């Protein structure tokens, strides 16, 4: 059922609907909703927040309207034992925006988050726009660590167009997509229960429909209390959902996910590096299936520290020369332009705090 949140929804149609799922964590979801408040986001665009309470023992709605700071807020409460995919679907069904963005309750949106997702969505006819996470343990800590996909972008590129397996990377904790595209794809499938693979399933279906997956390196979110679980129950959930994925999608590209080793075991020096090795095998297999060559290594590196540097890079992009770009200019616009124009010959990295 839907619980009305005050103030009442205005007639203005939002450009973006932020769908948040939560279960039994009222403190986290209040922090997230507060970060999405009108006074906390650097945008004048209309947007709304749809919170899906996915069967919490006690409703999380109390206090959320005050935290939203004049942003239209709706709380949808679901009964039952919880289903992440079904919860996102319930939120998307209630959303009114032209674009949908998804966040989990343990995230916090920095001031640029809404504007960045809108900026990239406006630049593409249709795309799944991915933001990564920055993990920290306390709200005020200046210290943070990168997330697992940083291993991929460090090896390949922050330019997802250079990665054959990019459709595997849109984790549902921080992404946006046009609402019309989401509906055409059928949204998240509730066949996936417990942990894992509902996002890979959505990414695969988007790729199969010709919808590109792109990475906005400025669309990151804060992530709190992130714990990588490797216990038997979590591994069993992930493996069961992978079997569901493989059963749903018999074509070779989808079947190649069997190469991913999400929970490496044994006497290894680094489970994270072992996971990356399996991702590399996965990416190589997708290239083999489509007879795609490996990306050409860059012939030189260009560092962007000023608008003049960015303009210099733009003059070189059309030539097709394989380049590595290290971008230290927050507003260069190069990350968007390179992926919008599908420049697979460009390896791109940011060095922005």
Automatic annotation (TrEMBL):
Know the name of this protein?
Answer: Glycosyltransferase
The UniProt entry, under Gene3D superfamilies, shows: Spore Coat Polysaccharide Biosynthesis Protein SpsA, Chain A
What the entry lists under Pfam families is as follows:
Glyco_transf_7C, Glycos_transf_2
InterPro entries named among the record's database cross-references: Galactosyl_T_C (IPR027791), Glyco_trans_2-like (IPR001173), Glycosyltransf_2 (IPR050834), Nucleotide-diphossugar_trans (IPR029044)
Q: Which residues form the Glycosyltransferase 2-like domain?
A: 17-149
Organism annotation: Streptomyces capitiformicae
Q: Locate the Galactosyltransferase C-terminal domain: which residues? A: 171-213
Keyword annotations from UniProtKB, A to Z: Transferase
Per the record, the domain of life is Bacteria
The keyword Cell cycle appears for this protein? no
Give any GO molecular function from the UniProt entry: transferase activity
